[in-house]
Amino acid sequence: MELDVHNGHKRVIPLSHHPDFSQQGYQIIGELGRNREGGRITYLANVLNSNQQVVIKEFCFTRASADLSGVKAYQREIEILQKLNHSRIPRYVDSFEMPGVFYLVQEYKNAPSLGIKCSFHPEEIKQIALSILEILVYLQKQVRPIIHRDIKPENILVDQELNAYLVDFGLAKIQGAKIAFSSFVAGTPGFMPPEEQFGHSLTEASDLYSLGATLICLLTNTRSVEIGKLIDDNFRFNFQKLVPHISLHFRLWLMRMVEPNRKRRYANASFALEALKQIEVVGSATRIDTLVGTIKPRKGVTALGLATVVTLATLGVTLMSCQPGGAVRQLLEAKECQSFDVNASCRENTGH
């Protein structure tokens, strides 16, 4: 009998239910996850005659829609993993084939995915964000930058020291490389950046959208499958009222991460990382935050924004707070650009 671990729950199932990889040098311990629709099963295994544990990822074409794009995706994942050498990306170990089935062997990290555990303090969520951003900086600094394309809670592992690991490069692509048309829109709804949904080219800002969506799920204790509850009719994240305890600057940072227009996000992970390092994530709403939060979406937003700045001035807000980079200006710009599709006006105001 062997131990089967599935979505955080343990049960014992007969050894005969596991494939025999002894000839390849591995012995299955149990399942780590299963995607029936995609024909994928992930196993935890021992390397024979050693103390090393590995993850074996099975891709079975007999249980999935077998086509050439699926084979190419499997090969692309191997090629990308072979190029990578980062302590928080499980390294490529081996791969082998059986009739109708491919197997990818990777280093095992003893850490649960955020799809299982999603209750963290905001300071811990900041640490997780910094950890993933460091990985994205590494990916984006490759000679040919790599875009993960499927960042979501289930693809992030976090250990007890809050070190985050990025897994599942099955959809990853090298920036600028051509991919099969069937792979254009292949991410996870709610976490996929708008530019991918509409078939536009992806940039280094694309993974930032997915990471921002993941962090908002963590902050609001929202399961991945329920992320749609956080997105309004204008396809924008509406989460601010659910996290009144986080600081104004952290909210602004998150809003910029999930800005639908990629040109208004941080240009890459390095910029997002440096910005987040300086931010205190916990703080009560300020008088400025509360006042500007009352702005209602309507055509007169620009005039109302100016009137608000004047009102704030009468409340004793110094001129410095209204200079570029000040919290007042940032919040007004974020409110204006978040609620309206006046591209020229937003670009003029924000410099993007």
Report on the architecture of this protein.
This protein is an alpha+beta fold and 352 residues long. It has 3 domains: 2-107, Phosphorylase Kinase, domain 1; 111-284, Transferase(Phosphotransferase) domain 1 (Transferase(Phosphotransferase), domain 1, Orthogonal Bundle); 286-352, no CATH class. Helices cover 32% and strands 17% of the residues. The protein is built from 10 helices and 11 strands. The chain has helices at 68-83, 122-140, 194-197, 206-219, 248-257, 269-277, 287-292, 301-314, 327-339, 343-350, and strands at 2-6, 9-13, 26-35, 40-47, 53-60, 92-98, 101-107, 146-147, 156-158, 164-166, 173-174. The strands form 4 sheets. The chain has a 5-stranded antiparallel beta sheet, covered by helices on one side. A hairpin with a 2-residue loop joins β1 and β2 (9-13). α2 runs antiparallel to α4, α2 runs antiparallel to α6 (269-277) and α9 runs antiparallel to α10. The chain is globular and about 55 Å long. The N and C termini lie far apart (60 Å). Residues 1-15, 180-185 and 290-352 have low confidence and may be disordered.
